Every structure is written in structure tokens, then in C-alpha cells.
Amino acid sequence: MKWSPRKPAGRIAYVDGRYVVHGEAGVHVEDRGLQLGDSVYEVWRLRAGRLLDLEEHFDRLERSLGEIAMAMPMSRAAFKQVLSEIVRRNTLTDGIVYLQVTRGSVRRDHPLPDNPPKPSVILTARRLDTAALDKKLSHGISVITLADERWGRCDIKSTQLLANALAKTAGKKAGAGEVWLVDRDGFVTEGASTTAWIVDLEGRLRTRPLSSAILPGVTRRMLLQVAEHLQIPVLERAFTVKEAKAAREAFISSATSAAMPVIAIDGVHLGDGTPGPVTLALQAHYLKQA
């Protein structure tokens, strides 16, 4: 899907069927997303007027909603019309579009309501600093590692992100571009908002297999297809922090970052401290076909 921008009219959000000024957008005080984190979300990267991996993000949205016993609040076709309009009203060609679906507003109580209210649908969009992103993609970032303290269903793209937010804050204070979370056995699960990858000493692309411990990243899924096309050997197997620090290359992936090179882990530089050839090949091919 591709759209053309129009004359700017201020930042606009979508909430429950209405397009409203971003600063005036809101939900009911007893919305379960606000009160209990009873909600899921999706993120699309808008690049050159096109939402990347559009259908794949809808696939994951439907899965997340199904895992928490919520139905899609509208059809994909209707969602696409809203996405198109929110991009148009915000005059975006490069940016990020966030979708949140909550269970709606009802008297606060922990159990899921017997008679569910109408879900709340919230869409916001913002411009992306593409110059800063391109610089990071060219030069790479550093990561630090922390204990993974999140809940046990990380495969659901829930808005319950407090542990992620605290990890991100620690990473920012340390001057790192991302935080890799580590399970009790010493294996990297994923980044605080990204998928973690390495190219191991045998030249294989390694990333943790899908389970309830990690989010099924859409960009992860697409990069695995790119790797197959480029005939890069892939091993979906967890790796330790020690293995990561000894790896030939490392990178993170997300809707925003594509394949973002990691050049240092906990202060230990990988190779010569510059983005590696496998990472750059994956990045270039993904962005070319996106």
C-alpha cells in the first residue's frame, strides 16, 4: 500500500472511529488497557510512502488477539482504510504507525468480563528521523546485557512493557543502543524491543527459536526468508552471552531498524568493531525488497 502526502494539518490520532488532534486524544478512565494492560499492539514502518510487511503484521495482530481471547475489532480491509487515512492526515512518507487494541471500558475487575465491552482501537503515527537511523545502520550500535525479568508470555505483543521500559532506561543510561535480555540459564532471549542475532564462528546465522520466551518478530520472519534467498546457513538455536561476545557478527532486528549492526556487547567489541558483511548483506537485501 502506498499513499501520497497532502498539506500538513497537525498531528492526528485515531481513537474508536474518530480522527482527533493528537494532544486531545484519549480513552475512558476505566479502559482495561489503561487499568490492567489488557491490550495488544502492532507497529508498522512506513518507508517511502509504503507500510512494510503489512499483511505479516496483521497476521501477528490476529494471533496476539486470539491468545488473549479477543476478536479483531474490524476487518483487515477496514483497518487498511484507517491506516491509509492516518498516514494521509499526518502527511507521512517515512515514519512509524502504532496500533493498539484494548478490551475496552468496563468496571475495573481482574477477570475478563462475561459481557465484553466494545474494544478500543487507537492509532498514532509519527515521523522517523531517517538521517539518524541511516547513521546507526551504517555504523552500528552497542548493547548491554541484563537479566530477563518479563512475564512468561512474551510471544503475545502485549502493551505490558514495564520490564522492557526499565531495561531500555538502563541501556540508555549506559549509552547503549539496545539491551539484550538473558534468561536464567545464561542464554539471550531477545532485545528489550528487538530480535537478537549473531553470526557464529562457523558462519551460521543464529537466533533463538520461537517460543513463549520471545516475540515472533515480523522482521525476524522476513530476514529468515532473505537469508534463505542469499543461501546463508541458519540455525535457530539459543546462544549464550559468551558465544555472542565471541561471534563474528551480531545485529538486532525490528520493524524500525531492519537489520541493525551490533558492534559491541557489554563493552566487548566484535571483530574490528564495524558492521559485518553478513549483517550488511541482509540489511541491504531486506531494504531493497521492502
UniProtKB/TrEMBL annotation:
Entry-linked PANTHER family: AMINO-ACID AMINOTRANSFERASE, AMINODEOXYCHORISMATE LYASE
GO BP field: amino acid biosynthetic process; branched-chain amino acid biosynthetic process
Lineage, top ranks: Bacteria, Pseudomonadati, Pseudomonadota, Alphaproteobacteria, Micropepsales
The family this protein is said to belong to: Belongs to the class-IV pyridoxal-phosphate-dependent aminotransferase family.
Catalytic activity entry: L-isoleucine + 2-oxoglutarate = (S)-3-methyl-2-oxopentanoate + L-glutamate; L-leucine + 2-oxoglutarate = 4-methyl-2-oxopentanoate + L-glutamate; L-valine + 2-oxoglutarate = 3-methyl-2-oxobutanoate + L-glutamate
Pathway given in the UniProt record: Amino-acid biosynthesis; L-isoleucine biosynthesis; L-isoleucine from 2-oxobutanoate: step 4/4; Amino-acid biosynthesis; L-valine biosynthesis; L-valine from pyruvate: step 4/4; Amino-acid biosynthesis; L-leucine biosynthesis; L-leucine from 3-methyl-2-oxobutanoate: step 4/4
EC assignment: 2.6.1.42
InterPro entries: Aminotrans_IV, Aminotransferase-like, BCAT-like_C, BCAT-like_N, Class-IV_PLP-Dep_Aminotrnsfr
Domain of life: Bacteria
CDD domains recorded: D-AAT_like (cd01558)
Protein's recorded name: Probable branched-chain-amino-acid aminotransferase
Enzyme's top EC category: transferase
Bilayer-crossing regions: none
Keywords: Amino-acid biosynthesis, Aminotransferase, Branched-chain amino acid biosynthesis, Pyridoxal phosphate, Transferase
GO molecular function: branched-chain-amino-acid transaminase activity
GO cellular component terms, A-Z: cytosol
Cofactor(s) essential for the protein: pyridoxal 5'-phosphate
Functional description taken from the UniProt entry: Acts on leucine, isoleucine and valine.
Pfam families per UniProt: Aminotran_4
